[in-house]
Specification:
By secondary structure, this protein is of the alpha+beta class. It has 2 domains: about 40 residues; about 70 residues. It contains 4 helices and 4 strands. Strand 3 and strand 4 form a beta hairpin. Helix 1 runs antiparallel to helix 2. The protein starts with a helix and ends in a 9-residue tail after the last strand.
Length: about 130
């Protein structure tokens, strides 16, 4: 409320932008806390759409290690980063990963980032 009032009083757009960013982050935190509560009580209804990342690549592949380090460098409550080697069972993974993972080469370093039931295109660039 303070930020929106500052925007109204001063006309400065930055205060309104900060208010929007704050509300967005609070919604994300609320969703993460609901997910954590569901996991602690044994349910996954809310968590089915949690954020996840999958890193493929051969054992000891330096490019895969870079992708994994980049994925783990960002904190997000409820996020999971899975390092996949060939022969992984996909039946217990979220739907988006179950459908996408079999089409990725397990021996090539790739990162797949999913939000809910939608995955971004695979990449081999750690900064992406």
């Amino acid at each position: 409320m303070a930020l929106t009032r500052l925007h109204a009083y001063t006309g400065e757009q930055k205060y309104y932008d900060w208010a929007e960013k704050t509300l967005k982050r609070l919604r994300e935190l609320r969703r993460s806390m609901e997910c954590l509560q569901q996991r602690m009580t044994g349910g996954d209804a809310v968590c089915e759409s949690s954020d996840s990342g999958v890193i493929t690549g051969a054992e000891g592949d330096s490019a895969a290690k870079e992708l994994e380090a980049a994925a783990n460098s960002v904190f997000r409550l409820g996020k999971a980063v899975l390092r996949v080697k060939s022969g992984i069972e996909v039946e217990h993974l979220p739907l988006a990963l179950r459908e996408t993972l079999p089409h990725l080469p397990a021996d090539k370093a790739m990162a797949l980032v999913c939000f809910g039931n939608t995955c971004l295109p695979p990449t081999n660039e750690p900064e992406r």
